[in-house]
């Protein structure tokens, strides 16, 4: 292992775990019972005796700007800041574990193949990193951060939605614009403008997407008929990434660096609309989802170590988690979303629910950051992939 990977992470501290709390609570309950029976007065109850020591637990403390403006040091203190900052600090630790892990970190198993008993080969084996994100991440400025990861091949696979695909290509042809959350829908509709949160996308941008995709779809359909090529969502996206030939595109880099992009809901958007209209002009185009589910599940099943970084919820979250069920759970898991679990939705479910299904391993730490992703994803990527660039990149 390199010296960098052997060095302990700064600011890693012990936090309360359930078993610690149970032990302290049982001891405190007994003392409280004895104390309350012998001291029946208000002041004594207000100043109930604390446990004797909390040695070994982290002190809650933030950064002091009297030391100067140093965001590197600010982010280091997040883990001891409390609330969602501490969860973001833990998420940074988990992603750095994904980046730094090599098979050489593990003892050689008795049933290991001869290939992976050779230390040089073991050093090349990394954690397989799955990145999932919803379409709004491509709609907004998070697209550029995701493109960076793909440009340097820092991840192994993507799962996203139809909008997460098409809006990347649309931005290669025309921009999205900053608007306001409270622009009136009726006024926008009459002007041919579409609102995504506080962003505005002209209908003309979708016309440009159609002009780009229709010839590609026609060519793919021709190859299906003449060569027997059966297309899957990942193959369609790969072809589009090749044809766009634009370094601003996420999927150009996915094509160039052989990063598969899975989109189980590929018809749920403008791409689906284009396929729909094409079916009337030339029926019979086949999009085979079964190819992709096998490819994704095999990728997880064959991973020596698996990490999942999931931004948002819904189909992209479950699709990655379910793939990791094939290997009895991911080793590292980080969620960033604003969903709550009280409605029973998978989108809002905490990571511990995935443990119950076998989608996250029993003995791992998993982190969910309750936050709007645009606030925290740039920090997370900066403190992990960018800061550990040489360890994270898989390009020459």
TrEMBL record:
One of its GO terms (cellular component) is cytoplasm. Pathway: Protein modification; eIF5A hypusination. Gene3D superfamilies: Deoxyhypusine synthase. Keywords: Hypusine biosynthesis, NAD, Transferase. GO terms for molecular function: deoxyhypusine synthase activity. Belongs to the deoxyhypusine synthase family. This is deoxyhypusine synthase. It comes from Stylonychia lemnae (Ciliate).
